[in-house]
Structures are given as C-alpha cells and as structure tokens.
Amino acid sequence: xxxxxxxxxxxxxxxxxxxxxxxxxxxxxxxxxxxxxxxxxxxxxxxxxxxxxxxxxxxxxxxxxxxxxxxxxxxxxxxxxxxxxxxxxxxxxxxxxxxxxxxxxxxxxxxxxxxxxxxxxxxxxxxxxxxxxxxxxxxxxxxxxxxxxxxxxxxxxxxxxxxxxxxxxxxxxxxxxxxxxxxxxxxxxxxxxxxxxxxxxxxxxxxxxxxxxxxxxxxxxxxxxxxxx
Length: 229
Prior knowledge:
Blueprint: E1 9-13, E2 16-21, E3 24-30, H1 32-41, E4 47-51, H2 63-72, E5 77-80, H3 86-94, E6 99-102, H4 104-108, H5 111-120, E7 125-136, E8 148-150, E9 153-161, E10 166-171, H6 172-183, E11 187-192, H7 204-214
Parallel strand pairs: 1-4, 4-5, 5-6, 6-7, 7-11
Antiparallel strand pairs: 1-2, 2-3, 7-9, 8-9, 9-10
C-alpha cells in the first residue's frame, strides 16, 4: 500500500498567508509562523511554503520568514517561489528548509533541475507544476497533447508559470516526463488552476496522469474542501 501524507501548503504574499480561488482574488488569512506551528500540532507530515508572487515581482523568496518558520517546526519543510539559481537554493537550505520547490525557473532553465539533483540529491527537490485544463472538441484538434475525455469533449493540461499568470503552450504530462529525465527521483507538486481554492476536490485527472506517466512521488494540491477529498 502506498504511503499517504498530509502536507499543508502555505501560500505566502507580502509575508502573510493568503487564500484565493484559481490563483486570484487573494485574501489575507494570517501569520505563516502561527500556521506552521498549528499544522504541525494537528499532525501534518510535512509543510510547504510557497512565496507565490516572488517570481512575478522578480524578487527572491523572503529568507528571513523561511528561517522563522523553520525555527518553530520539526517536520520536513519545502520552500518555493523566486528560486532561480544554485545560490538561491543554497540560501533557502541554509535558512532551514529541507527541500526546494521550482516551477517557473525549471521551465525556463530545465538544466537547473539536473544541477540541483547532482549537488544536493533529487530527494531535496520538488518540481511544482501549475496546470490549466484546455478543452477541445476532437482528439485531432491537438494530436500532440495528452488528451483525456471529459464529458463530450477532451482536455489536456497546459503548464502555467509566473504564479499561474503565464501560459507556456507546454503539456503538463509531457513536461513531467522531462522532469523525471532531469531530476530522477524528485517529487512533483501538481496544482490545477481550475480547482484551486474551489474546495470541491482535487483535479484527480491531472494528478493521476502525471503520477502514472512518471512513477515519481506526487502530492495532490489545490481543491481540497473536506477530509473525503
């Protein structure tokens, strides 16, 4: 039986945890340090901290805040957002993170995944993949994409970068296969923009497609509304 983990994700903007729907209409939810302490006490297996506007605002992750969170928890801690170089990776790990998460930087510079895996080991790397469903009427409309039936249509998942604001034209399943080639045994964190914050459940089609295509550890993200999800 596969091991299941509960991994809360702190989406952070301007030093505060925020909540939104489909990556938009963000609202303040509280202090990330307090949330981190609370989630560990409630039994979380790991914690993810994503500085969700760092790349869009062309700045680095807030390292001092990462340090504060790391000081109050003992569970494995992943940090992402604005990490674009080996120097950034080192700074985040030095601040107390156990793993780093890349999205935009990985798409722009795929070789960075290989460099991180070689230097620190792929077990310390998470590749976040933000995706959005793109619907077509017929398979022939997108012959090069990994299409799956949804009602009377088909859809594939397009990779998004820059906090879900930029469409890349890349197929998320194909990109996940490339990630495996470069990073071997890293983890993948797929988030569907269509389901994020809606609280009606995860986009299991996207999660399953990536898990089956790679065989890598995959953490479902975006859409949970209750324990059954």
